[in-house]
Every structure is written in C-alpha cells, then in structure tokens.
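Lab notebook, page 48
Experiment: co-folding of the full assembly
Goal: obtain a model of how the components sit together before planning crosslinking
Operator: M.T.
Materials (sequences as entered):
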Amino acid sequence: MANKNYTEEQERMARFAKAMGHPARMAILEFLLRQETCFFGDIHEELPIAKATVSQHLKELKEAGLIQGEIETPKVKYCINRENWELARKMFSAFFGQSVCKKESCCG
Amino acid sequence: MANKNYTEEQERMARFAKAMGHPARMAILEFLLRQETCFFGDIHEELPIAKATVSQHLKELKEAGLIQGEIETPKVKYCINRENWELARKMFSAFFGQSVCKKESCCG
DNA sequence: AATATTATTCGTAATTTTGCGAACAATATT
DNA sequence: AATATTGTTCGCAAAATTACGAATAATATT
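Observation: model returned without errors.
Model output:
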C-alpha cells in the first residue's frame, strides 16, 4: 500500500468517466450532441425516468463540467460545455491512444 | 417521460465509463498499460489503499471486461483485455469524434 | 389576483459503492 | 507437518447513488 496519491490526471479523468457512467447520462450527452433542441422538457421526453431524476442527472453532468445550463424563461436550455468537452476528448483520446504492451509476459 | 429504453450502445459505454469512474481504477488501468509488471502485489504497491480494496477494484474492472486475470501460483497476473479494450477505444473515439453542434440556438 | 407552465429542490427509501481488517484458501518452503 | 507467501472473500460500516412524488419557485397568461 503506497503512500502515494492519485494524480490530477487520474482524478480528472475519473470524474469525467464517472459522469458518463450511467446510461441516462450517456443518453443526455448524445441528445445534446445531436442537438435538435436542448430544453429540459425535450430531454425529459427522451428518457424513461421522472423529471426529478432527469434534473438530478443534469446536475451531475453540470458539476462534472460536461454540460452547462442557462435559463430562457420559462424554460431551461442545456448544452455541451465546449471547453471541458475538448479537454475530455483529449484525455480519453490520449488514454486509449496508448498501445497495449505486448510482452509475452502479458496474458493472452 | 418516454417509454423508450436506453440503447445497447448507451448501456455498454456507460458500463465502461463507470468502471473508469474511480481514480484507483484509472491508476490500475494506466499501470497495466505501462505494463512494467502486472502482478497483484505490484499493483497494490502503487495504490494508497488496502489490498482488500484493490482486489475489489480489480474485480470490477474484470466484470466490466476491461481487464482479465490469471493465476500464476502463487501470484495473480492481471492484464488489459485486448478485445474489449479495442471495443471501448472505438466507442469512446466515435463518441468524442462527434462534433458539437454550433447552432446559434445553443449556448455560448 | 388567480392560473398555467416549466423545472428545481426537498424528503424519503432502496440500493450500490467504497473501504477496511480479519479470516480464509491455495500453494511453496522449511 | 508447520510456516510463509500471495490474494480473495467475508462481514461490517459509512457514504454516495438512483429514483420518485410532492412541494416549491419563477415567470407568463388570463
């Protein structure tokens, strides 16, 4: 058991990944990427869950930095947070860009 | 509230993302990618948590399909599951490859 | 002023996650 | 046979997640 902590990178990427770690939130992100509309009501309509729950998932995505919301009375409009989206894109891209080592000492 | 369920894709990707949604598990994956060694003990040595907890995280990564383990008595060797790794790579790549819509109706 | 629309917050319940130490299993070594 | 080494599993506790309906807030409309 090392004394060592996790790196900033690991913490950050885990934060993004965790936010993506629920099908409802993946569905929301995909919806916002397609971006036909982005009002709360439209998002809710797409999902098989109660509006209170949708609101909760939106909050988590927002807190993770992947989306943002703004009020357009009486509606609320949600969108991808472009800056953090780009950051996440880069991190995941770099992560999966690593080639898996092929030493014979590895399984398979 | 739609009657509609989540897609297979959404479920699958959320499963991968969830597995990556903890810094300890990100650290494990990075360690296995670097692949200096891949015995349980070496992994445990890198992390600031008890071995029981490491074992638990490894189990989750295994159940999500991202890694695999095999016994090399008296040690246990863990590795990236190449097949699913490739699948995950493709899914995340496709997901982040989508360009974010730029309609003026979107925020920002 | 009363009502309707839209979405968030509150209160609650059930489940899952995270983490640990202790106990256990399985094989090697003495 | 006793001991050491290596990891997993068990039992438990604390915290976080997921989900819902009801209550609330904030503005528009009648």
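Interpretation: Residues 22, 24, 49-50, 52-53, 56-57, 60, 71, 73-74 of chain A lie near DNA strand D (CB under 10 Å from a C1').
Next step: discuss with group before ordering constructs.
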